[in-house]
Automatic annotation (TrEMBL):
Superkingdom of origin: Eukaryota
Catalytic activity: ATP + H2O = ADP + phosphate + H(+)
InterPro entries linked to this entry: AAA+_ATPase (IPR003593), AAA_N_dom (IPR025753), At3g28540-like_C (IPR058017), ATPase_AAA_core (IPR003959), ATPase_AAA_CS (IPR003960), Mitochondrial_chaperone_BCS1 (IPR050747), P-loop_NTPase (IPR027417)
Region annotation Disordered: where it falls in the sequence: 313-337
Phylogenetic lineage: Eukaryota, Viridiplantae, Streptophyta, Embryophyta, Tracheophyta
Amino acid composition bias (Basic and acidic residues), ranges on this chain: 316-337
A Pfam entry, by short name: AAA_assoc
Recorded GO MF terms: ATP binding; ATP hydrolysis activity
SUPFAM superfamilies named in the record: P-loop containing nucleoside triphosphate hydrolases (SSF52540)
One of the GO BP terms on file: response to stress
The name this protein goes by in its record: AAA+ ATPase domain-containing protein
Keywords annotated in UniProt: ATP-binding, Hydrolase, Magnesium, Nucleotide-binding
Amino acid sequence: MWTELSATISSLAVAFFMFDKYSHCLPYIFRGYLERNFRKLVNFVNPYVEITFHEYTGERLKRSDAFCAIQNYLSTSSTENAKRLKADAVNESQSVILSMDDHEEVTDVFNGVKVWWASGKIPPHSKTISWFAGTEEKRYYKLTFHKYYREIITKSYIQHVLKEGKEIAEKNRRRMLYTNTPSKDWQGWKPTKWGNIVFEHPSTFDTLAMETQKKDVIKKDLIKFSKGKDYYAKIGKAWKRGYLLYGPPGTGKSSMIAAMANLLDYDVYDIELTTIKDNSELRKLLIDTKGKSIIVIEDIDCSLDLTGQRKKRKKKDDDEADKEKDPISKLKKEAEEERESGSKVTLSGLLNVIDGIWSACGGERIIIFTTNYVDKLDPALIRTGRMDKHIEMSYCCFEAFKVLAKNYLDIESHELFGKIEEVFADTKMSPAYVADILMPKSEEEDGETCLKNLIAGLEAAKKSEEAAMLKTKDGVVTEG
């Protein structure tokens, strides 16, 4: 019996090989008919079921989340069992990540059921030269198991693999800093809307030059938000929160964003509005962002002319009669304004992204606007519900100075602190300027020298402020 069975299997194997090699010579309809019936014959004697997970799926060939989760899950099994491995170096480190090489197989056991995982790739049908990575080959993972355990595998094991793979990815995840590519570069095969690098900014709330009480309030607010998934679902709101950081230049707005990302372990998406063609492209960018992220638009008052668009529209409505009298001049003027503006992102488009229907695409997102001049922003842009919390980043105070002294000089107390506190009370100096003075410029400079330099700088700034006030009282107008 075994002799006859082995002979039958060998014959089927030879037939399958010949069919696979010469099937392209047959008509398409006939070839499909033979293939379907041949598969039925093979399945009759083959008790195993195969499930294939491809790396890229969908019309836009988006990388499959399931493939990535399986890759993470198998990374442990492959390093223990596989004989052929691939090594990927981690950026700027001596460690490597090992994974199963192509056309390699490992086994796994789940609740006493043995399964086989194999990795493979499909070569291109024709030899072509491509400028894009990943276009030549299509990779996949194939799961094989006995058909008797179909229900266990499909209902329990696969879910177990995906869950474990996602947890491994979350554990090994490195924070990334994303920036949007110009809209004109989105065309082509597998376009990329976001470029990224590893986010390694060292700023934390402990190193921020700010009052301790104020920092504690912000930290509690952030932690409360990060744990509020069920609460936001209960009240029927998108799981997002808006922060407006405003204050003079050099007061630590960018450092605050980095500290938030480090506290919550979030990625950062830095949006440059001037490179976005229109509102539609802005929505596409939002859709391509992930959860656990901070979306930042820095210097919102300078990114686009969002603040004056309502005034311009009102002026156009008031001058409609004059424009109708001279339609040629109107067309020329509109064409010139369009060339100058470049981007057609509007205030209403930005508002819809912040708290419209599109803002609910995904969850656990923080949206941050920064500005040096909060008075220039349209009130609709920063109202509660869009920018939920307004944080003023002010000039350096004595408590903030003590944080900087500890950071830069490792000094927590000094006899010169009393004098510095007196001068700080009447002087406006940004934390960035104070930090620059406190930073030693040579090996000969010690902590006391830097503190004396700060006192001299504060006194000079105080005299400059007094002179400016005196000129203002005398009616003297100066530039700047």
